[in-house]
Amino acid sequence: MCMEMNLQTLFQDFNPSKFVVHSCLLVFTALLALKLDNAISWSYWAVFTPIWVWKFLVVLGATVGTYVWWQYPHFRLEGEAYIHYKAMLISLAIHLILLMFELLVCDQLSTGRHVWILVFIPVIFISIVSIAICIWSVKHDRSYDLELFCAV
User: What sections of the protein cross the membrane (predicted)?
Assistant: First the structure.
């Protein structure tokens, strides 16, 4: 049986945001593996650059979303718009806490001036908060992929 590739279906199912996230994670993982194998002599700050790009895009998207929310009040009158806005802010908060963890990890790997337990405090905090966010997401019929991953 020959399977035919339908490009129209492929591009309809394409999710650009997930593509960016997975691309950044793939490049980061490859760079980190090369750094740990001493194949490259880059600093950890350069190795973490794909993660910084991802977080920058998250903050930029939330900034644009907040600007549109406050600039155009007719969006606030729609039924689910407030729930979408709150979900965006919750996602931004999770990403900022993860950014804090990533900055601490990068600094610890570069300088070694922190105790590892202090580096992992943002992850412990986010795992506790993510349980409440998962409950909120189920209640409001929102996706909770990242929150569920952080809660576990």
Answer: 20-40, 52-70, 82-103, 115-138
What are the DSSP calls for 8-49, one per residue?
A: HHHHHS--HHHHHHHHHHHHHHHHHHHHHTTS----HHHHTH
CA distance 144 to 107: 29
Place of tokens 């593996």: 33
User: Residue 78 carries which DSSP code?
Assistant: S
pTM for this model (two decimals): 0.82
User: What are the Cα distances from residue 113, in Å, to 34, 98, 108?
Assistant: 24, 20, 6
Place of tokens 């591009």: 11
> Rounded to 5 degrees, what are φ and ψ at 92?
-60, -45
Place of tokens 């909120």: 136
**What pLDDT digit, counting tens, does each position of 57-98 carry?**
999 999 999 999 889 888 777 778 888 888 889 889 999 999
- CA–chain centroid gap for 37, Å, is 26
User: What span, in angstroms and rounded, lies between the C-alpha atoms of 52 and 99?
Assistant: 8
More confident residue, 81 or 152: 81
